[in-house]
């Protein structure tokens, strides 16, 4: 029996392109699977939000070109983390469930994202959800331990950790940095006359005024009782005195509401600026001595620790 052999068909350019596209798709799917497996493992290795996002950002670029990433929360913490270079074309993903929101992530690059890439990214985001949730929960617990529950300022433990770092950064980069030591005048009489709820409200109002005057980069700590310490980054001594006077004047003009009563409160302030030879304790000591001078000189005034 003779079998007729059909001549082999020649592959057209169209067929070659289709085969190439199919091959690329298979390779992409394989890389996507590998990246998903690595992400699932590596995202379990840290509870630090920034490190977590860095792992995610690095790995997704194995399958989709991404120029930059920005993560932001919409809670009171206002956490914002950015990596890479931010570009014109962007896609934003809301990270949320039916009961909570974990903010949003924006990816960007210089050319438009295509539909297939967006599908890949959406699949990879599923590996990020629970590790990010765990990281934010851990961050909230750490933050709560370092915050004063009444005034929502940083507490003394947080100050001890932070102030030394700020002093070293100031000296290393030769940048000005100043601190203010603030103390409410005759605070005990407020508690004795109007009650502790009035005293609590006076502390809260004072903090709100200080935050209203200062920049977001400045750091406010409850030093103890009715005493606060304010770190003014990139602020020389003259600038610190100007800010201190704004705070003093605004507090003096403010009345604390307590039932039918309006309580007048004033504040004394000591100012000290970081020197190249300063240790943290020396800087705080100068501000504290300046505050003492403001107190013994009649209160409701500012003294310099220079």
From TrEMBL:
Enzyme class per UniProt: transferase
Chain ranges of the GGDEF domain: 175-306
Alphabetized InterPro entries for the sequence: Diguanylate_Cyclase, GGDEF_dom, Nucleotide_cyclase, Rev_trsase/Diguanyl_cyclase
Residues forming coiled coils: none
SMART domains noted in UniProt: GGDEF
A Pfam family the protein falls into: GGDEF
EC number in record: 2.7.7.65
Catalytic activity: 2 GTP = 3',3'-c-di-GMP + 2 diphosphate
PANTHER family for the chain: DIGUANYLATE CYCLASE DGCM-RELATED, REGULATORY COMPONENTS OF SENSORY TRANSDUCTION SYSTEM
NCBIfam families recorded: GGDEF
Protein name in the entry: diguanylate cyclase
